[in-house]
Design brief:
407 residues; alpha/beta; Rossmann fold; Beta-Lactamase; six-stranded antiparallel beta sheet; five-stranded parallel beta sheet; 12 helices; 13 strands; extended
Length: 407
């Protein structure tokens, strides 16, 4: 292959999700990077043959060619193998780290990521790419993990970067686990205390029955507590099963949409709450919520009486113990007041701009009048000075004539 000119400040994003690609592009462009996007591995290779980027940030799970295969192809191709590759994924399996090392990836960043961290990793990778190439393992290393063999020929810096990224993820997960364990420990102690209290009060009752009754009471109390919260929260809370049949409809939802709970429960939420997504793409919204498990945006929805209202929607997916979709929960907020305020602010800003234009025009007119006045006044003063000179000269001549007559 022929040599390809390298763009030292261009980053190529390889991501099949348009939403995530644009979000990452916006994030990097805020820090003055030039960014281009490829929708999959094959498209990325075609772009690289025309213009060589300084660094590639690629998702792993993509159609046609995944991130591992793309990275492996780059690292095995002579005139592009020096391009640093950062693999970006939500996966946390140690096998993915080994696959990253095996295909020659330079770094490994897990989703969700913080802006500060990913920008620092990109900057560090760009700096490393300008430094002399580090020593590469010449013979390679065979690694056995999970009953599978991996052949690693990555540079030491690549291995260090990937291991540090993995370590960071492990630390974060460990902190989350520690918090969960602390909460579980506190709950366990509280449960033990309550069980002991009830056992002492009901010595004649079977221990198993006592635990069952206590558990039932706790569940009922929790349900009552949740019902109270749902009834008093200001936002509409709407829940449905996996087929969009409504299972929960709080008082705020009744107020927002005009439907009573007994009128809608068991019916299709798509039928009851008709939604216009406007500039939002419905198909893209469905894909995002299925991939990320949540979606948030502004839509227009219809009330029972047919009126249309702007609503801010925050939706999440509920899963059962087997990971299957069990239903959906949406927290919806009427933003009519906010939209009206935004419109009033826009009109006020336009009014201020018009006043500024009028005031500017008035000042320009006054300035023109002042300049005209200055020109007239200065001209008159000059004429007066000239007239005084003439008078003085005439008086001098008269004196000379009178003197001559005397002589």
């Amino acid at each position: 292959m022929n040599s390809i000119e390298r763009n030292e400040d261009e980053i190529l994003i390889v991501e099949d999700s348009p939403t995530q690609a644009q979000m990452l592009k916006f994030l990097l462009e805020k820090h003055d990077y030039r960014v281009s996007i490829a929708n999959n591995g094959k498209e990325a290779l075609e772009m690289i043959t025309m213009r060589k980027p300084a660094i590639i940030v690629s998702d792993i799970i993509m159609p046609e060619m995944d991130g591992f295969e793309l990275c492996r192809h780059i690292k095995e191709t002579g005139n592009i193998k020096d391009i640093p590759v950062i693999l970006l994924t939500a996966l946390c399996d140690p096998k993915d780290v080994l696959k990253g090392l095996e295909c020659g990836a330079n770094d490994f960043i897990t989703k969700p990521y913080e802006e500060k961290y990913i920008v620092s990793r990109v900057q560090s990778m760009l700096t490393d790419s300008l430094s002399p190439e580090t020593e590469k393992i010449q013979s390679g290393i065979k690694v056995f993990f999970g009953g599978q063999e991996y052949y690693i020929t990555a540079q030491r810096q690549q291995i260090l970067n990937l291991l540090l990224s993995t370590y960071e993820t492990a630390v974060r997960k460990n902190l989350e686990l520690q918090r969960a364990q602390d909460e579980l420990r506190a709950l366990t102690l509280d449960l033990e205390r309550k069980v002991e209290e009830r056992t002492m009060e009901l010595k004649s009752v079977n221990e198993q029955l006592s635990r069952d009754i206590a558990e039932r009471k706790r569940a009922e109390e929790q349900m009552r507590h949740q019902s109270t919260l749902l009834a008093n929260v200001n936002d509409a809370i709407v829940a449905s099963d996996e087929n969009y049949k409504l299972t929960a409809w709080n008082a705020a939802a009744e107020s927002l949409y005009g439907w009573k709970a007994e009128e809608v429960l068991g019916r299709s939420g798509l039928e009851i709450v008709q939604t216009d997504y406007g500039s939002e793409d419905k198909g893209e919204m469905v894909r995002v919520i299925e991939e990320a498990g949540r979606w948030r945006g502004e839509v227009t929805q219809m009330r029972k009486d047919g009126t249309r209202i702007p609503v801010e929607v925050s939706s999440i997916i509920l899963h059962d113990e087997n990971g299957r979709i069990a239903g959906y929960v949406s927290v919806n907020r009427d933003i009519t007041g906010r939209k009206q305020t935004e419109d009033e602010l826009r009109k006020y800003r336009e009014h201020l701009e018009e006043l500024v234009k009028e005031r500017t025009a008035e000042l320009e007119r006054k300035n023109s009048e002042l300049e005209h006045f200055n020109r007239v006044f200065v001209g008159r003063e000059l004429r007066m000075i000239e007239l005084k000179k003439i008078i003085a000269e005439n008086e001098k001549k008269i004196e000379q004539l009178e003197q001559e007559k005397i002589d």
